[in-house]
Amino acid sequence: MANKRNGTLYLGVTSDLAARVHQHRNGLIDGFSKQYGCTLLVWFEAHDDLQEARRRELQIKKWKRDWKLELIEAENPQWKDLYATLF
């Protein structure tokens, strides 16, 4: 999730991406994403195993910001909101 192109980034794990993004977009979850206005789904990965997804989350959270931006731009160079693609 991001608040704008090259802006603040939020990374998390969920078993229901569409529902979770809806919560973030509508400010239903207090915390970092609400405080910084991270309402745009600009990148996501699907995993079959929740533990694998959590390991990947922790790995990416340790990355330098530039690496995270490269990951987003490789799949979504225009930083389009991908929320509609979930349906």
Automatic annotation (TrEMBL):
Pfam families: GIY-YIG (PF01541)
GO molecular function, one term: endonuclease activity
Keywords, in A-Z order: Endonuclease, Hydrolase, Nuclease
InterPro entries on file: GIY-YIG_endonuc (IPR000305), GIY-YIG_endonuc_sf (IPR035901), UPF0213_domain (IPR050190)
Annotated GIY-YIG domain residues: 1-71
PANTHER family: BSL5627 PROTEIN, UPF0213 PROTEIN YHBQ
Family the entry assigns: Belongs to the UPF0213 family.
The protein, known as: Putative endonuclease
